[in-house]
Amino acid sequence: MTRFTDMVDGYRRFRTNEWQDERERWNELADGQSPKVMVIACSDSRVEPAIIFDARPGEMFVVRNIAALAPPYETTPGHHGVSAALEFAVTQLEVEEIVVMGHGSCGGCAAALTGQFDEAEHGAGRFIANWVRMLDGARDAVTAEHSHLDPKAFLEMELRAVQVSLANLRTFPWIAERETAAKLALHGCHFSINDGKLYVLDEAEGVFRPA
Questions:
Q1: How many domains does the chain have?
Q2: Are residues 96 and 6 in the same domain?
Q3: In the chain, which ranges are continuous DSSP H helix?
Q4: Which residues form a coiled coil (predicted)?
């Protein structure tokens, strides 16, 4: 599927098959949504949360962006799309869990690690550069541990990016309050495209283990 016409053909198959099979479910969803989980995932076309987690329509509130990043809490003027989605999911939908899912071969994390767009003050790449600048601290830590940017370094960057997002999530007062009150749980994980395995972060030990 590469073009819009292919997508329309896909819609027609969906309308004939899946939509009919889940007719009762779609009737329920027409009245509103009540997902228990929010997923922050990468925009990468290879990493579709609904497929990876085998979720039905209405079960997950999903936000996707470059490198699956959650920004820190900020009140400066601007268009804070991810923050708005977080606010809606937590304060309005009252989700009970937030999952940050990084992944293997992440272009956003690679750009942050290599500094590919560091000089893009104007023109192509500037939005990417500003966004992945959230990972500057992670980049410093990775380059301090790895003298060469080998596959292990890129993987380490992807794992650290998940941890950065979790730390940023806790700067939002209404997330921190709910987590302290045990009304909201935060999780980090990493999906390996190469072998299809999901690794879940044990925050207490700071390690990712196979699910």
A1: 2
A2: no
A3: 4-16, 18-21, 23-29, 49-52, 81-87, 107-114, 126-132, 136-145, 151-169, 173-180
A4: none
